[in-house]
Amino acid sequence: MADPSSYRPKPGQIPDSPGVYKFRDEHRRVIYVGKAKSLRQRLANYFQPLTSLHPRTATMVTTAAAVEWTVVATEVEALQLEYSWIKEFDPRFNVKYRDDKSYPYLAVTMNEEFPRVQVMRGAKKKGVRYFGPYGHAWAIRETVDLMLRVFPVRTCSAGVFKRSAQIGRPCLLGYIGKCAAPCVARVTPEEHRELAEDFCDFMAGRTGAYLRRVEQQMMDAAEDMEYERAARLRDDLGALKKALEKNAIVFNDATDADLIAVAEDELEAAVQIFHVRGGRVRGQRGWVTDKVEAVDTAGLVEHALQQLYGEETGDSVPKEVLVPALPEDADAVSGWLASRRGSNVSLRIPQRGDKKALMVTVARNAQQALTLHKTKRASDLTTRSRALEEIAAALELDSAPLRIECFDISHLQGDDVVASMVVFEDGLARKSEYRRFQIKGFEGQDDVRSMHEVISRRFKRYLAEQARTGEWGEEEGQEPGEAPGPEPTGPSEPGLVPGRGSDGSAGPVSREVSAFQEEDGRPKRFAYPPQLLVVDGGQPQVAAAKRALDELGIDDIAVCGLAKRLEEVWVPDEDDPVVLPRSSEGLYLLQRVRDEAHRFAITYQRAKRTKRFKAGPLDAVPGLGDTRKQALIKHFGSVKKLRSATIDEICEVPGIGRKTAETVAAALAEAVPAAPAVNTATGEIMEEDDGGSTT
């Protein structure tokens, strides 16, 4: 525990202006991010006597070893920067709402020639219309199945669509009338797009006029004695009404609003959100979080708004957001929401009427979610604590191992040798810090040498990060998509010195820095040591891991291994294993850590093997990346046609210069085409696919 006075900045050094501040621990890890109207006043609150601080705040400031800040021009900019840093650094003392899934949306791909209706999760894509979120994917499919009778929009994948176009026959949905079959030109692209737009209008809540039009068409058909058409329209009308019944009307004025309610106790808080679009409840979602910082209801609401709308833009942010308590600076939050939407957003507490009544319902759901969560987690908290205590007692550790790292080696008969590193903190998997390695020091199968290499590389990076002898490059230790971002720039001097822009004024790019300014504090690197290092294996693997640590001069990390055969726990320099009872929670936790490392390693090893088996002649072309390979295949249609193309024809592909075209042509000329594959059932020779392998 650090003494806050040891890193407290002088009051004159802290600017009296809006900004965002970071606390770092002794390992340079960002542990808390906050914003303030006045940095001077807010930071002064953290350096009061510990007895006058909230217990959680006291824990944070004694864990910290440094503080730094960034000055911004407005409070809205402070809110934006705070959200960005919380997402980037994942600080342990900030409230973070986590749910166990990505909520599904009903999506219409209006950016395609023939729009497709489908279930989508994850990041939003440009040109796609989204409706939801929904609690379950099956709820979307049920609604779509009802509406396809009236709006027969394409729902098939690109592969099915292309196949139907090639054979000239639609899929089953085309035959039963639930798809307009644009794949076989039953409708024109314009007619199909009009169907998709009608579908979107109906989902957006513009239902009344459409229902009246269908009903009138039904009556007209009956009067004209077109009874079959009238019956079909009657069934269409029934399907639409049934789809609408699944979303009860809560507001009669076609309101678009999100209602947020919070239920909390001293330790945890639950947030529930109801999404109302066109006066109907279109979706519901919720989170439960530990109150790791001293925060009231207004603060929880602000964090929820950041979580909910931090990645959203446009119509995904509604015109109205109803909350149980307004954030401390409601005007700044409203301005931030308006900037996300592109127009004004009303942020308020409902006082009366239907909105107040629905807020009561949302609050009731939040309370039920918190109660259910506490019921499920009560034994879990106790079990995890007991497991960590049992491990500490069995291995004679000074304290419970709050951070555990486990390493495993995977290969297939000596080929594609890889390793994995998984991280458990407080007994729970921390997947953002998982890492995977390729074995580079030697060829062939040797689990002991592989383990020594991986442990050495991991902790060499740790020591390098501690010494700050250089920056990190993008290597195999990073997960896909986790490339380092730009390092903060600015002067680095002892203490905290207010930074200024080139014109002498404070601005969003002006940074106040500490001795750690060049550090980014990202938890996505190897900068933080575990209390316990676990290897998958017995005495030889444990000895290799211990030898790697000894060679690096690291003597404050406990090492053990878990052998699969008898689930024995091996420790260095001991001839006999530590035997934990089969019913031990500590043994169960070590097994989960080991099994997770094995799963992660074998997943990577299989991916590498699959990629190697699927390698085509283009993979041998030096300097030709995936983007340009795809462009070549898309342009020519297959590797066979590309092989017969001239250099001038290859140069016509965007991004391909003459030198690259010559290299591609030479590589394809040297490559020997694979023998054709034969379908054993039909005797037909199968054609090359786009990657050059046979299918």
Describe this structure in words.
The chain is α+β, with helices and mostly antiparallel strands and 695 residues long. It folds into five domains: 4-89, GIY-YIG endonuclease, CATH 3.40.1440.10; 108-245, no CATH class; 257-371, Ribonuclease H-like superfamily/Ribonuclease H (Nucleotidyltransferase, domain 5, 2-Layer Sandwich), CATH 3.30.420; 396-480 and 523-610, Nucleotidyltransferase, domain 5 (2-Layer Sandwich); 616-686, Orthogonal Bundle (DNA polymerase, domain 1). Helix content is 39%, strand content 17%. It is built from 19 helices and 21 strands. Strands 12, 13, 14, 15, 17, 18 and 19 form a seven-stranded mixed beta sheet that branches. Strands 9-8-7-10-11 form a five-stranded mixed beta sheet. Helix 3 packs across helix 11 and helix 4 (137-147) runs antiparallel to helix 9 (227-245). The longest helix is centred in the middle third of the chain and has 42 residues, at 353-394. The protein is globular and about 95 Å long. The N and C termini lie far apart (61 Å). Mean pLDDT is 77; it is low at 469-524 and 674-695. Keywords: Cytoplasm, DNA damage, DNA excision, DNA repair, Excision nuclease, SOS response. Residues 16-95 form the GIY-YIG domain. The UvrABC repair system catalyzes the recognition and processing of DNA lesions. UvrC both incises the 5' and 3' sides of the lesion. The N-terminal half is responsible for the 3' incision and the C-terminal half is responsible for the 5' incision. It comes from Streptomyces xanthochromogenes. Interacts with UvrB in an incision complex.
